[in-house]
Design a protein that fits this description.
It is built from four helices and ten strands; from the N terminus they run βββαββββαβββαα. By secondary structure, the protein is α+β, with helices and mostly antiparallel strands.
Amino acid sequence: MSFRCRTCGKTHDELPRLGLDQPDQWFDMAPAQRDARGELTSDTCVIDGEHFFIRGVIEIPVHGEATPFGFTVWVSQKKENFETYVRHFESADIGPFFGWLSNRISFYPDTLLLKTMAHFHGGGLRPTIHLDPTDHPLAVDQREGISLERAWQIVHHYDPGTS
C-alpha cells in the first residue's frame, strides 16, 4: 500500500507516522486567548504557566515489519521534569518521566489521560511514549503489536484517501 504525504506531496510506500499538533487541552482555550495564555512549539506546550506538555511518539510494533507504526502525541509533565527536558533536550540521560496522555486518538476508545512514561533518546529525537500496561486497546497494541493490515486500517481511518 502507499499514501500521498500531505506535507511533501510525494507518494510513499511505508506506513506514515500519524501526528497530533497540539495537546487536547490547547483546544480548551478560546482561539483568541491562546496567544495570551499559551506557548506552543513543535515539541513543547505551556498553558497558563502551570500546565506543561511535551511531544513524543507512541510506537506500535507491526508484525513482520522492521519499522514500528507511530502516533506523535502530547503528554503532560510536572514542571520540574518539563524544565529538565527543555534544558537537556539533546540528552538521553534524563527520565523516564511520568505523564498523562493528552490527546484523544479517535481510532481507539478514549485515550485522554492514560498513564504514560516518556523515555528520552537525545540527539534531537522526540521521546518514546510508553503506555501503562493496562487492558486498554492502545496499550495492548503497543505491547503485543499489530498486523500490517490493522496498521493500514488506522491510517485509512485518519485519511480515507490513501491507496
